[in-house]
Amino acid sequence: MAGQRDLTRGNLITTLLSFALPYIGANFLQALYGAADLMIVGYFCDSSVVSAVATGSQLLQTLIFFITGLTVSATVLIGKAFGAKQYENIVKIINTMTICFIVAAIFLSTFIIIFDRTLLNLLRTPSEAYISTAEYIFICSLGLIFIFAYNAISAVLRGLGNSVAPMYFVAVSCVINVIADIILVGKYSMGAQGAAIATVCSQAFSVIIGLIYLKKGNFVFKFKFRGVKFDVSTAKELFKIGLPLSLQDTLIPLSFLFLFSLANSMGIAASAAYGSVVRLNAFMMLPAGSFAMALTALTAQNLGAGKMDRSVNALKLSVSFAFICGFIFFIWQQLAPESAIAIFSRDKEVLKAGSLYLKSFSYDYMLVPFVFCFNGFFFGCGRTVFAAANNIISAFLIRIPVAYILCSVIAGATLFELGIATPAASVLSIIISSAYLFYLSNHNKLAA
After folding, report:
1. What is the pLDDT of residues 403-417, one digit of tens each?
2. Do the beta carbons of residue 8 and residue 307 sit within 8 Å?
């Protein structure tokens, strides 16, 4: 059946790779989408505008993570229903999710508009970049409804085993964003405002294409724009699974925002460098994140079909594939970190500061395959409370304290010291996840 795919059958390696590769493509385009603003702004503007876009993007990314936490719950529920052949439940899930997301989008947009200056102060936004950052955040907040809509559409399709269509949606959005960036930032010198307008417009186009696809596609359900009904029991299930993820996906980025505030306190060069590395890491973490996302949908479908052993084997394969990529990235950043930072900035001070950060942080490239894939597996099992608690504990017991201590105690601390905190947090997360998986496996509770 066009538009969906059964992930409970066939050769596991072939199924995993063919399903994960479109995720990698979509996430690459999504990362390129985000990086385009910074790359084009870095080419046409000074470091203050780069810092503004970097800071504003990091703040908005925190909200996007909150959104994706909710959408994962839809992927899990739809995947389980599809795997169990309970097609009537899919429409109920989609309808309820739509109403919940519209309300959430309006609330978050209003929140940002009201408290934007407070948030910028908490981030210790450099004075040179303050006004531009505020303008960037205001414009992007108006487009949050499109971010919700895109993630909702993608969640539905991925739960149905379709990882290709979301990649095409992002591709169109990415092309529009780059073109608009070049015109608004390059030709018309609109700086951060231009980058924000380009972002919102490209997101809107992506949603329009996605809605047309859902309307005209051949699915096991009939998508309708009218007659959307809210189901209380489905909403409870969505929030039961999604809220722990949203809490995690909000608090974890907040821990990185704290790190960003420490970087901002080191000066404009460090601020721009940290922002550039954040964009770079979107690419470096891409394989691990993509396999983890694919693993969530695959696990959900196989859980619904009663094939838990297949999901466990998929976990092992996902970690292996992602680790190979992470090791390659680690070697690159140890040997030539400036070559990566140069993609976003030509400023010598920014290159120096960013290289110092990558020298210590890049160890995390070999750790996140375990962290992300464990998360993807537990998400697919519906054990989001454990996964969220584990990630929050590692962030607030290790990442933030280590970063604060190293940057406060060491005189003249640089981004090198700041970069140590994240790999340290990942180590704790891996230990906890491994112990929990061992416990579930030995007590036959994986499918509970």
Report:
1. 889 887 777 788 888
2. yes
